[in-house]
Write a structure and sequence with these properties.
The structure is a homodimer of 211-residue chains. With 211 residues, chain A is mainly α. The first copy, chain A, folds into two domains: 7-58, Homeodomain-like (Arc Repressor Mutant, subunit A, Orthogonal Bundle); 69-202, Tetracycline Repressor, domain 2. Chain A is built from ten helices and no strands. Chain A binds a DNA duplex (26 and 26 nucleotides) through helix 1 and helix 3.
Chain lengths: 211, 211
DNA sequence: ATTATCTATAGATCTATAGATAATGC
DNA sequence: ATTATCTATAGATCTATAGATAATGC
């Protein structure tokens, strides 16, 4: 039983590390300029990895950037899982998710910029995030917490508003992010059929430590 | 008084036409693949214009694609102005705007794909669309039709949900677009503080011909 | 012995410009 | 006479690969 080593032998780990370096560099580029016409050479330099290695891991730049977006979505989803587990009320989950996202725009700008630039295109792809959100929505509908909504349309609206919050955080950094998140979450709860009074209260309920 | 000629002499019109050809080609590319790393040569070919002409109009590809997005937003805004003028109730405007957008995803796919790929980044820039939406929101707030919302946050949510509807249209073409638009508009109205019963009724009210 | 990484490079492609051509104004 | 467009091209850059090197497995 090894103490901390990831799976695979040293060879495979080394290979995986090179791949990760490429993905990390691609994520940085997506976050900073979003300009995917950058040369493979420039990406390899940023990754501090030999140029030719690229072809051991990816067939094209497109493939690399796809992997980078998937990686960012995965990390975002995992952060949600870690921070929001234990919240049972779907309405509270929405609020907490929005507030956490606003916070992450400050604490994890690189990750959130990727989301901002590429998130919309993955609203309905079957990444962990969309699946998870749909499940939470269905729980809320089944329990009667959410009413008068169709799951797919609600997923659409939830994703769109979340992205617009992220966009708002970056476009208007002078605004109070948490306040905007609470305000938007309240609106989204009403949208999901939560009575206005409840929505107001739930959105402002103290939340577990979001880290 | 000339019959149909746009402003400027023939020279200027010819010049303007070349520029338009570039913008049109750039819009097509944004709609089809969104891959802005396409070569200037390829763009010029698609525009059926000499390659060197590019530099008479734009300093860089980025500048061209910015112009292309602005052009699409402008056209979208003008379509709204044409089709939705005469609708006084801000709540009805929201519904009509959503339904019109869903329809345009079918009738003007090229335009709407540009919006889908680049719209989020222009939610808060001062293009005619955002300005117009903010004005309508403020009218609604002033008249009491919309309640419990902050204008900027509401603008954010409105833009995000609209984009998610467009995304939905393209990602799930098998769904009934108008139905989804009505359903989402109803949710958005609740979000804007319209009482659920009203929201249900208004979203389904017969609308003036949207063309 | 095997396999990934790295370096070097051929060939393809792209950008930006210079100079020729064509269209229009006056 | 003026100005935009077009063609041709120099120089820069990029991609994809071949072959050398380094790291690890067995």
């Amino acid at each position: 039983m090894s103490t901390s080593a990831p799976p695979g032998n040293r060879f495979e780990r080394r290979r995986a590390e090179t791949r990760r370096a490429f993905v990390r560099a691609a994520r940085q580029i997506l976050a900073e300029t979003g300009d995917t016409s950058v040369s493979i050479q420039a990406i390899a330099e940023r990754a501090d990895v030999g140029f030719g290695s690229f072809y051991n891991h990816f067939e094209s730049k497109t493939e690399l950037f796809e992997a980078a977006v998937a990686d960012a979505l995965e990390e975002f989803g995992q952060t949600f899982d870690e921070r929001l587990n234990g919240i049972d009320d779907p309405a509270e989950l929405v609020t907490a998710g929005f507030r956490l996202s606003a916070r992450m725009a400050d604490s994890h700008p690189e990750l959130m910029q990727v989301l901002r630039r590429r998130g919309l295109g993955h609203l309905y792809s079957d990444n962990g995030l969309a699946t998870r959100a749909l499940r939470d929505l269905q729980v809320g509908i089944a329990s009667g917490r959410f009413t008068d909504v169709e799951p797919v349309v609600a997923l659409s609206a939830l994703g769109g508003t979340l992205l617009s919050l992220v966009e708002l955080r970056f476009a208007r950094p002078e605004l109070d992010g948490d306040e905007a998140a609470v305000s938007l979450a309240e609106m989204v709860l009403r949208m999901l059929g939560v009575p206005p009074d409840d929505a107001h209260e739930v959105a402002r309920r103290p939340l577990p430590d979001l880290g």
